[in-house]
Amino acid sequence: MKTFCLNFIAFIWLCLGACHAQTANPKQDIFPKGTTFISNIPYASDTLKKHLLDIYLPPVVKSSYPLIIWVHGGAWMLNDKYADMGYMTQTLKKFMDKGYAVASIDYRHSTTASFPAQIQDCNQAVEFLYQHAIKYKLDRDKIALIGFSAGGHLASLLALSNNNNIKEFYYDGKKPGFKIRLVLDFYGPSDFLSLKGSEVNDPKSPINLLLGAWVFDRPDLAKIASPVTYIDKNDPPFLIVQGEKDESVNPTQSISLSLHLKLAGVKNDLIIVPNAPHYGVMFDAENIREKIAQYLDEFMK
């Protein structure tokens, strides 16, 4: 009877542990069997829920893994580090199959902290991964970013400003040590000063809420928050993906970013997905995955 009770308690403990793992990572089933999940790692030495990140290590055993950092979208005020994964399942599988680690990061919403809090958080998360690369079996010299919508904006801003020393972008005012090798930008806004209409006229528009001010009242702040401001010849290559029928981010934002990069001599390609809206499974298409693989093979090896 005693043995039965002990076995029953052990069974219950395992079940509770399984339930906790599923709660901690609701996207676990997306990843291949054998993936290592390291969830809810605090990157800012505090207890904020938005200062957590997850690491996914591929099934293949290696001494270290090149790293792709996932920056979620949500108008800077919605979603979490699991967002956008649900419609990019084949792309995530591609990353794992090619032996890349993925780290998904959270950042503070604009509803609780105005810009530059979001870019400070992203820089701090990337620097944490860079400084703790050995612990998590990551190759600190091979870091790429992938971002969606607001996350595309933050990924672009982080990478393009990395050649500069914008103290306001760092939580402690100190320039981080990491370098970004590649940016995969999915429909991220790039130039706030070129926006018009409801994008900036509505006081509750995501960009005005992000800045904590009207774009027209603070063009200086809008410029500081725009990725195109920081483009120079030493920036990493970009693969930019944009929906033709995007109702939230005008395709001209991606076109402008591509042209600015080209003028500066920065390698980039722009894929306009025919009839595609702001997000969805159309961005997980085989031709886009193959182009991503080409960029990874060229710039992350």
Describe this structure in words.
The chain is 34% helix and 18% strand. By secondary structure, the chain is of the alpha/beta class. It has one domain (30-299): Rossmann fold (3-Layer(aba) Sandwich), CATH 3.40.50.1820. Helix 2 links the parallel strand 3 (65-71) and strand 4. The longest helix has 23 residues, at 2-24. The radius of gyration is 20 Å and the shape is globular.
Q: At CATH's second level, what is the architecture?
A: 3-Layer(aba) Sandwich
Strand order of the largest sheet: 1-2-4-3-5-6-7-8
CATH class: Alpha Beta
Structural class: alpha/beta
The CATH superfamily title:
Alpha/Beta hydrolase fold, catalytic domain
Low-confidence stretches: 1-23
Largest beta-sheet details? 8 strands, mixed
- Number of beta-strand segments: 8
Write down the overall geometry.
globular
State mean pLDDT (0 to 100 scale). 92
Tell me the β content.
15-25%
GO molecular function: hydrolase activity
Keywords: Hydrolase, Signal
InterPro entries: AB_hydrolase_fold, BD-FAE-like_dom, GDXG_lipolytic_enzyme
Protein name: Alpha/beta hydrolase
List the main descriptive attributes of the protein structure presented here:
single chain; 301 residues; alpha/beta; Rossmann fold; eight-stranded mixed sheet; 9 helices; 18% strand; globular; disordered N terminus
